Amino acid sequence: MPGVVDTTHTFATNEVITSTLMNDIIDQTLFTSDALSGGTLALVSGKMKVATSGITSNEIASNAVTASAIASSSSASTGVTYAKMQYVADMKALGNVSGSLGVVSEVSILDEDNMVSDSATSLATQQSIKAYTDTKVAAVITRGTAVATTSGTSVDFTSIPSTVKRITVMLNGVSTNGTSSVIVQLGDSGGVETSGYSGCFVEIKATPSRLAASSGIILNSPAASSTCDGILTLVNITGNTWVATFVGGDSTGLVCNVAGISKTLSGTLDRIRLTTDGGVNTFDAGSVNIMYE
To answer: In whole angstroms, what is the distance from residue 55 CA to residue 40 CA?
Structure first.
């Protein structure tokens, strides 16, 4: 008969209700489709079950599912698995970049070797970080090509970038055929400047001697055939003003050379010259190189 249930037995008028009939009704009663409302439940042979995809957010109250109701993971396949999480677009990660407590959303992952976006809310790939770092480290210090100081009266290093703020000049066994001071001169697009150097050079030896800077940064005041080893450091203080310090020694083993000298150029530094005071002596041994940053 029609209704919510089908008892499989219809009583006749004045029919005696027996325990057998009642047990049969209880055991054999089945639900009909009239018992269903909405799509949450379904019937299988008269018995109710949860319908496939029947439970949606409409059937779950807010805050009904709590953290304690979700099984904790003990492996990659238990608890809330990756497959049960929301799909994420390519090059996105789940996170919160709102600056305060908030809902999880997609955060961009950028693969930019030059970090051009300068984003405060995006992630960078390991590859882009490595590429950017390698480029910057390589650009921090540039080493020139060593030049033999075995002939000629000067060695020039040119095309030094305008952004350089620190230069190191390295002398290895540099020697000349005379006794004029070995000096370094600075220059700009107008050429090497041969005056306006301020400071002094000191030979530390049994009887110290001192020379005032004039035509260049003094590195050595040698005896004939002695060699000079040392490091000259040039630092840009401001504008076109440079200060220099030098520490070195000569092959006699009895002399240490120290200098502190400054120079303001007429333009942006772009060249360095190693020569001798007056530019008359000829180099006859050793090598020189520069590094800049």
So the answer is: 6
**pLDDT classification of 2: cutoffs 50, 70, 90:** low
The answer to whether residues 196 and 187 touch, using CB atoms and an 8 Å cutoff, is no
pLDDT for 170-226, tens place per residue? 999 999 999 899 999 999 999 999 999 999 999 998 888 888 989 999 998 876 668
Tens of pLDDT along 240-269? 999 999 999 988 778 899 999 999 999 999
Q: Residues near 237 by Cβ (< 8 Å), separated by ≥ 6?
A: 243, 262
Q: Is the dihedral of CA 81, 83, 84, 88 positive or negative?
A: positive
Distance of CA 258 to the CA centre of its chain: 39
CB 176 within 8 A of CB 223: no
Q: What's the rounded Cα separation, in Å, for the pair 152 and 170?
A: 18
* Cβ neighbours, 10 Å, residue 111: 13
Rounded Cα distance, 118 and 132, in Å: 12
Q: Are 107 and 95 in contact (CB under 8 A)?
A: yes
Residue 73, token pair as written in the block: 């993971």
**Helical (H) or strand (E) element with 201:** strand 198-204
pLDDT, the chain, mean = 90
Alpha carbon of residue 42 to chain centroid? 58
Which residues partner with 122 through β-bridges?
none
**Residue recorded with tokens 């040039």:** 234
Contacts of 277 by beta carbon, 8 Å cutoff, 6+ apart: 180, 181, 183, 215, 216, 218
Taking the C-alpha atoms of residue 131 and residue 47, their distance in angstroms, rounded to an integer, is 64
Domains of the chain and any CATH numbers = 5-50 (no CATH), 86-138 (no CATH), 142-292 (2.60.120)
User: What's at 276, amino acid-wise?
Assistant: T
The CA distance from 129 to 146, in Å, is 32
